Amino acid sequence: MVTLTDAAVSTLERVLAKSGGAAAGLRIAVTDGGCAGLKYQMGLEAAAGSDDAVLTFGPVTIFVDSGSQPFLSGVVVDFVEGIEGSGFRFDNPNATKSCGCGKSFSAGGAAPGGTCAPSPSGCGSSATH
Predict the structure, then answer these.
(1) N or C, fewer C-beta in 10 Å, the chain?
(2) Average pLDDT of each block of 10 consecutive residues along the chain (129 residues)?
(3) Please, which residues bridge with residue 42 across strands?
(4) Domain containing 23: what range?
(5) Which H or E run contains 11?
(6) pTM (2 decimals)?
(7) Contact 94, 101 (CB under 8 A)
(8) Who contacts 76 (Cβ-Cβ below 8 Å, separation ≥6)?
């Protein structure tokens, strides 16, 4: 399903440690939104949900709900740092179209998508992603 690079694991390990034990892991989900139709969401979670796939990468646990699983099959999540900033990058073989922001995509006939017009958030979407 989802694979994390060493850089992503290292970064997430630090983030989870800063939660002081309040978070059991990180949720990665796909929801409607963004300028290409679907967007990635990440957030700390206290526990897995009843329909979650639970993935372990050393000290890091990832939760993926059943609705997001088909969109995240084969995805590689990396953490990159560069001149333009740092953040998580998703390499998704299921994406048939993606926005320049890298956080929004479409997969086949799922979600109609929007336009990728420039905006202050770096993406044509008014949604946070």
Answers:
(1) N
(2) 96 95 95 86 96 97 96 94 89 80 67 40 39
(3) 28
(4) 2-106
(5) helix 6-18
(6) 0.79
(7) no
(8) 2, 3, 4, 5, 90, 91
